[in-house]
Write a structure and sequence with these properties.
About 40% of the residues lie in helices and about 15% in strands. By secondary structure, it is of the alpha/beta class. Helix 7 packs antiparallel against helix 11. The N and C termini lie far apart (about 90 Å). Bound molecules: 2-acetamido-2-deoxy-beta-D-glucopyranose (3 copies).
């Protein structure tokens, strides 16, 4: 009889059949214990759901940290309350993205050069620009020495500049300076960031059409779970930048006007990178601001508005800290044909598993060659590139 009761604890029939004395017996105490435990746990879940920020501490007081993690995974994600600053920032950005593009009389592309000094490949760009006056403008941020120009298109196109330290926020500051100068001209609709070692891989008309007749920006962006990706995220960036939104990508972008404006409008997310992303911060976290700020910013605020790959080719196949620099002996018709016919992009993560993610380069849903520009080309490659220019840019 007794064991049976034990098994059927909690059923209404048993409860009713229990008299006061037996209720206080050692067997009878179990229902109360269980009810108490169940209520405590339920209260705990309700509390955890209502006050997600406080629940963590409470959790550690009562359960082991492993139990807490399991609990956190089980709980439905609670929406985080944005701060006043985040709400303001998001509403301004949304408004800019939702407003129809303002078009000038003519649409121009702003070619923005980030360089320490002179641009050794200027004459190749000169050849590229010839005959397309009125459809482009040039801006130069020379961080070290005032450039000596070989091409008329570059004369007096320097903007106010400042020192640039690799990997630091000063790199982003230079990009923002270029965007601000280029935005002053209402006819600039596309903004292309280039370096002194960049070359055009297509004719002007091809590049113009490729950028003007699409509504996305070509900003590189991917999730790298390894030490050189999400491993560079810092808790100081929380809560505005959750680790799961932290992204990586190459610096060289093309941006539509609305995107250039939202980059100008951003002070909040920018400040997180300015304060917490730099080489050597927190031990060996080599956070490189220009590899993370824009990919993360766009991934959070307009993920569908970017291509997630860059239109600027570079050769990382040597797997060193810096990419390969092409020398004169490398410059052949075959090399340029190979680069310009690539139509899938690839991202390699730094988690040591060597995982490579390949995806087709889609332009308005159609598979097209990925690259419009290339780097890094040594100054001595100029003559060979000039010889081959009309040949390789006539490919498409
Ligand atoms: C870029 O990636 C985001 C999310 O990872 C995705 O939503 C978006 O559609 C992608 N962009 C394009 C053009 O496919
Ligand atoms: C771009 O245009 C396509 C087709 O017109 C549309 O479906 C898509 O939502 C647009 N994307 C953006 C980011 O405006
Ligand atoms: C480009 O160069 C290749 C190889 O030298 C040659 O076969 C081809 O005819 C050239 N094309 C043009 C358009 O000049």
């Amino acid at each position: 009889m007794r064991p049976m009761k034990g098994w059927r604890l909690g059923s209404l029939g048993d409860m009713q059949s229990l008299n006061g004395a037996r209720y206080r017996s050692s067997h009878g105490r179990r229902p109360i214990w269980i009810i108490a435990a169940v209520s405590l746990v339920s209260m705990f879940f309700i509390f955890g759901y209502m006050y997600p920020h406080h629940s963590k501490a409470a959790c550690h007081m009562m359960i082991s940290s492993r139990g807490c993690k399991a609990l956190a995974d089980w709980l439905p994600p609670s929406p985080r309350q944005y701060s006043d600053e985040e709400i303001a920032s998001r509403v301004v950005i949304r408004e800019i993205l939702d407003s129809p593009p303002v078009k000038g009389k003519t649409s121009k592309i702003a070619f923005m050069f980030l360089t320490p000094g002179s641009l050794p490949l200027e004459m190749l760009w000169d050849r590229f620009f010839q005959g397309h006056e009125g459809k482009f403008s040039v801006y130069i941020h020379a961080s070290r020495a005032r450039p000596v120009h070989a091409s008329r298109y570059f004369v007096n196109r320097e903007i106010r500049s400042d020192e640039v330290v690799w990997g630091r926020i000063s790199m982003i500051d230079a990009e923002r300076r270029l965007l601000a100068s280029a935005l002053k001209d209402p006819e600039n609709q596309q903004f292309v960031l280039l370096s002194d070692s960049c070359v055009p891989l297509r004719s002007f008309q091809y590049i113009y059409d490729h950028l003007m007749y699409t509504n996305i920006s070509f900003v590189d962006c991917f999730e790298d779970p390894g030490p050189h990706g999400s491993g560079r995220h810092m808790d100081h960036m929380l809560p505005e930048i959750p680790k799961k939104y932290f992204r990586k990508g190459a610096q060289w972008f093309t941006m539509k006007r609305q995107h250039a404006v939202i980059v100008m409008a951003d002070g909040l997310y920018y400040s997180k990178f300015r304060d917490y992303c730099r080489p050597g911060v927190e031990g060996n976290k080599n956070c490189i601001a220009d590899e993370h700020y824009l990919p993360t910013f766009f991934h959070m605020l307009d993920p569908g508005g970017i291509s997630n790959w860059t239109v600027t080719h570079v050769d990382w196949s040597e797997r060193k800290w810096h990419p390969k620099t092409y020398m004169p002996e490398d410059i052949t018709h075959e090399l340029l044909k190979d680069i310009t016919s690539v139509d899938t992009n690839s991202h390699v993560s730094s988690d040591g598993k060597g995982g490579e993610i390949r995806s087709p380069c889609l332009w308005n849903g159609i598979k097209r060659p990925c690259y419009l520009f290339g780097r890094k080309f040594h100054p001595d490659t100029l003559d060979k590139l000039l010889d081959l220019f009309s040949n390789y840019t006539s490919i498409a």
